[in-house]
Each structure stands twice: as C-alpha cells, then as structure tokens.
Design goal:
twelve-stranded mixed β-sheet, 306 residues, 28% helix, 2 domains, Aminopeptidase, alpha+beta
Length: 306
C-alpha cells in the first residue's frame, strides 16, 4: 500500500524539491540554495510556506505558497507546485494543493492563483479542483553559444553598468522596478511595492547575479535594468526586465538585456530562458530580436476560496 505524507519543508529536502520543480521543465531555473533561502527568510505578512509530499518515504513533490505582497489588493495568494512525472496520479498534487489552500485561507486569502503547465493534463487537473483559467504566458529559450545580434547605437548620455555597483544602496534600482511593475500584465495590480520587501525578496536572492544584471543609466540615473538569476553552472534566467515609464521608447530595455546576455555567454552560461505574458507585445518583440524561441507555455489558474 502506498503511504502519502504531506509535511513542512526541511533543509535536507532542498535537492529533491528542486529536482521535482525542474523535472520535464528545462526552462525553469531553480537551485537548492535558492529553496533553502526562500524557506529560511522572514517576510512579515507573506506567510510563506513550502509543503512537501512524500510517497513511501521519498520526496516526490512540493508546493510553495504565500500571500501576494506589493499590491493594495487584499486577499490574494499564490500556490505553485510540482510532482515528479513518474509519481503523478497518486494523490500527491491534490494533497499538496489542498494543504496550501488551507494554510492561505487561514491568513485571509480569498483568491488563490497558481501557474499551470499549458498542457491538457495539467489544465484538466486544475479545472477538476475548481480553478478557472486566467492569463497565458510563454517561455522562451536561447542557446548562448549562438551569436547575439549586434548592439544598436547607444543614445547619447546612456551607460550600461552592472547592478553590483549599487550593492551599498540599491534603492535606485528598486525605484525602477516599483515604477515599471505597475503596468506589468497580470490579474493583480502591483501598485504598492515595498522597499524592505524588495530587499528581502529580490535583492537578497542567492541566485541573483549582480554582475550579469545590467542597468541602463541615463545621465547618471538608473532608468532600466535586466535582472539575471543563474544556477551557477550553465543556465541563465531573465528574472525581470524593467524600464521606468518616463524613459521608454529609447531602446534601453533592449540594450540592457542584450548586454546581460553577452556577459552571461562570456561567463560560460550556455542556455538562457525568459518568460512573458502573451499580451506583452513589446517584450516579446525584444526577445524575438534577441533570438529567443518559444519552448513552453503556462496558464494562470484562479480559485475563490470559501
């Protein structure tokens, strides 16, 4: 008889949980170090928690869940999980999601969001558990051994600098993100990004590569950036490319992302991945110009909790 256990994440689960997260999804870049950090940090109001599924004593999947911060919209949470392909259809995913729903409902979440692989089995699983489909997004992949396009002419007064130059005071980079994220496509308006939350949740990530994160500076002021996370071996993830609204239309995001990819290739990274909402036409065009090709899709699932 199969024995299924749902429990809280422990540090020695990190490798197995990362493996379940990436299994069958080459476009997802997640390290065990990042998982340890996610589960060890303290972020007031987020109520972050990772549940792990064990089948006959083996860790086969997990779900990460929390209250969504950075918005004036209340009662929204997320739960994103995965189970190793060979252990699906045994109740692990259902039990993990139920644990996340109970946890977040206890902290005032009334609307739960989850990302689903855009394939029939995943979508059917969510529909059977009360989730309705929301936005669509696509992943792009690129072989960094292939040539990058030549850099466009850089506008006068524009410099490209690594984010590590702001290590002592990253607030100017936070201001770029706080402005740009307000019109990022999504169901929830991110209109209340908090600096301390950003420091804990973005800037402090162990997989954030500040040398490969490139900032476009206009007359001394950070105007755009392309944030890079890596696995420290050969895989690169474009975490967020942002441009302050007053500086748009000058090609700054394109310049920053191209330079970040160039530096990543020079540092020995061989595969680059990115993701965009399917309505984000400007970034999709930039990524196509950079040589990214669609490699997977995902759909947002939304459920009202009672």
């Amino acid at each position: 008889m199969t024995s299924l256990t749902i429990r809280d994440f422990r540090p020695d689960d990190a490798e197995a949980v990362a493996a379940a997260h990436r299994a069958g999804r080459e476009h997802l870049v997640m390290t065990s170090e990042a998982l340890l950090w996610l589960n060890g940090r303290q972020s007031p109001g987020e109520h972050f928690r990772t549940f792990v599924a064990e089948l006959d004593g083996r860790v086969v999947g997990s779900v990460r869940c929390a209250v969504v911060l950075g918005t004036t919209t209340t009662g929204v949470g997320y739960a994103n999980g995965s189970v190793l392909p060979g252990f699906r259809r045994r109740g692990a995913a259902t039990a993990l999601l139920a644990a996340a729903e109970r946890h977040l409902a206890g902290h005032g979440v009334s609307e739960l969001h989850t990302w689903l692989d855009d394939e029939p089995a995943s979508l059917a699983f969510a529909a059977a558990r009360g989730y309705e489909l929301g936005r669509a997004a696509q992943f792009g992949g690129r072989d960094l051994a292939l040539p990058l396009p030549p850099a466009p002419v850089r506008p006068a007064g524009v410099e490209l600098r690594p984010a590590e130059e702001w290590a002592a005071d990253p607030r100017p980079l936070f201001l770029v993100e706080a402005d740009a994220i307000q019109d990022e496509p999504g169901e929830v308006l991110m209109d209340a990004l908090d600096y301390e939350d950003w420091l804990r949740g973005d800037w402090a990530r162990p997989d954030l590569d500040r040398a490969l994160t490139v900032v476009a500076v206009v007359d001394g002021e950070p105007a755009a950036f392309s944030m890079a996370q890596t696995d420290g071996v050969d895989r690169y993830w474009s975490a967020f490319t942002a441009c302050r609204r007053e500086f748009r239309g000058r090609g700054l995001s394109k310049l920053a992302k191209l330079e970040s990819l160039r530096l990543a290739a020079a540092a020995g990274y061989r595969r680059a991945y990115t993701s965009n909402d399917e309505t984000n036409v400007p970034m999709l065009a930039i990524n196509a110009w950079l040589g990214y090709e669609r490699c997977a899709g995902e759909r947002k699932g939304i459920k009202r909790l009672k």
